[in-house]
Amino acid sequence: MEEKGSYRYEHGRRYHAFDEGAYYMPNDESELSRLDSQHQIWRLTLDNALFHAPIAENPQLVLDVGTGSGVWAIDFATQYPNCHVLGIDLSPTNLGVESLQNCTFQIHNVESDWHFGKDSSFDLIHSRMLVQGLHDWHKYFRRCYDYLKPGGWVEAHEVQYPMSSANPSVSSDAPFLRWSHLIHEGLAKGEVDGGAANSFSNYLHQVGFKNVTEERVPWAVGPWMEEEKGKMIGAMEQANLQDGLEGMTVGVFTKNLGWTSQQAKDLVAEVKRDISDPDKKYIVHM
C-alpha cells in the first residue's frame, strides 16, 4: 500500500498521489479525524444504525466505497464478525484494524475498472460523501448492480450543493450560500455534479434496481432547530464545517475557478464567521 498510496503536498495539506487529481480533498490526519467525527453525525442521523437497507440477516461480503478513515467499514465488520468488509479508497488507512481479520482495504479509484471480487458477489455496496470525486454516477450505479448478489442492496449517502437557509431574510450573497454556489460551479467545471443526488432515484431505476427509496435529510448548521436530535446534528455539523471548509474549498477553487490559495483561505475564514451566526439558520441538504 505504501508504494501505491504515496502522498503529495499542496496548500499546506497532504493529498493522495494515486490517480492524482481524482479527488479534491486532503487525506491528512486532520481530515481523517474530521471524517471520524462526520461518521458520528451520520450515525445520529440514522438513529445509530450504519445503514437503512434491509440486507440479509447474515451478510457475507460488503463493499465500502470511498472508505476514507475506514471507520464505517470497521464498525460494520465489528457488528457482523462473519461478514468480510472490503473498503476501497484512493488512499485508505487501516490503522487499528490489525485484529479485525474480516476487514481489509484496497487502494482503488472506483471510476477505474473493478477487479475485486466476482460479479454478483456483494450483499451491500455502501458509499458516503463522494460528491467531490465521482464524475459518472450512472456508471457507478450500473457497476454496483453488476457486482451485487441477487437481492443485494446499494446505499449512497450524499450531500447536495448548493446550501440554503431557513431564514427568508438571509441574502443569497451571504458568505456560506455564496460559497456553496461557488463550490457547485467549481465542481461543474471539473465535470462533477455537486447536485447529483437529485438524480440518484432516476439513475437507480434506469440501471435496473427495484425497491428504490429516497430520503432527504436536512442538517442544520448550528443548534438552532427546536427538536433535540436536530439540535445535536446542527452542533456537530457546525463543528464539521469549521474543521472541513478549507479542505473542501482550496483544491476546487484553485484548480477550477482560478483563485489563489490565499484568496480561497480568506473566503473560508469569512464563511467560518458566517456559519457561527445562529440567526442565519443554514441548512446542508443530505
SS content category = alpha/beta
- Cα Rg: 19 Å
Percentage beta strand: 15-25%
From N to C, what is the helix and strand string? EEHEHEEEHEEHHEHHE
Spatial arrangement of strands, main beta sheet: 5-4-3-6-7
Shape: globular
Poorly predicted segments: 1-5
The helical percent reads: 25-40%
Query: End-to-end span in angstroms?
Result: 32 Å
Outline the biggest β-sheet. 5 strands, parallel
Protein architecture, described:
The protein has 286 residues and is of the alpha/beta class. Helices cover 36% and strands 19% of the residues. Strands 5-4-3-6-7 form a 5-stranded parallel sheet, with helices on both faces. A hairpin with a 2-residue loop joins strand 1 (7-10) and strand 2 (13-16). Helix 1 (29-45) packs antiparallel against helix 6 (228-256) and helix 3 crosses helix 5 (200-207). The longest helix is centred in the C-terminal third of the chain and has 29 residues, at 228-256. The radius of gyration is 19 Å and the shape is globular. It starts with 6 loop residues before the first strand and ends with a strand.
